[in-house]
Design brief:
- The protein contains four helices and seven strands, in the order E-H-E-E-H-H-E-E-H-E-E.
- It is of the alpha+beta class and 179 residues long.
- The chain has a domain of 125 residues: Molybdopterin cofactor biosynthesis C (MoaC) domain (Alpha-Beta Plaits).
- Strand 4 and strand 5 form a beta hairpin.
- It is elongated and about 55 Å long.
Length: 179
């Protein structure tokens, strides 16, 4: 077999909600491919993702005292900038993501408990494909940035879980509350 040819891969037998047993990023021979969205109609689409950062109690208390500022600067401000850049660069990081015009990107960061910081990212576009991956990429890069900004205080932080909270537009809406 020549180097450019790859053997056919077994297809997934897991069924999607539409009943199709094929994964959308595999061609008929089982090779990876980008989904063709050229025939789809533009529509308003949005997605929201969240990720948590858990801190050891002593570290969380210190960060609360300093209003989430470290020697590197304002933790949340830098995390939001990094997350926003990640949203815009998603197709550079995830091979089969389409480049999209981002109409809106908002972050919300708040203490969920004494030691858990909750980060949310909401992304909007008007396009032929959704922004779930952009929201997930944005929120996880923001969480990684929080880790980077705080690691001088210790490495006991835990990132996750990260999850899609919901999406609107396209074939169907999704809400994690409905599952």
């Amino acid at each position: 077999m020549r180097r450019s040819e790859s053997p056919p891969q077994p297809r997934s037998r897991a069924r999607t909600r539409s009943g199709d047993d094929r994964l959308s990023h595999l061609d008929s021979a089982g090779r990876p491919t980008m989904v063709d969205v050229g025939d789809k109609v533009d529509s308003d689409r949005s997605a929201e993702a969240e990720c948590r950062v858990r801190f050891p109690a002593v570290m969380a208390a210190r960060l609360r005292e300093t209003e989430l500022r470290t020697a590197k600067g304002a933790v949340i401000d830098v995390a939001v900038v990094a997350g926003t850049l990640a949203v815009k660069r998603c197709p550079d990081l995830i091979p089969f993501c389409h480049p999209l015009p981002i109409d809106g990107c908002q972050f919300a960061v708040e203490w969920r408990s004494a030691t858990v910081l909750d980060i949310r990212c909401r992304v909007r576009t008007r396009h032929r494909t959704g922004v779930e991956m952009e929201a997930l990429t944005g929120v996880t890069v923001a969480a990684l940035t929080v880790y980077d900004m705080c690691k001088a205080l210790g490495h006991g932080m835990v990132i996750g879980p990260a999850r899609l909270r919901g999406k609107r537009g396209g074939k169907r809406d999704f809400s994690s509350d409905a599952e």
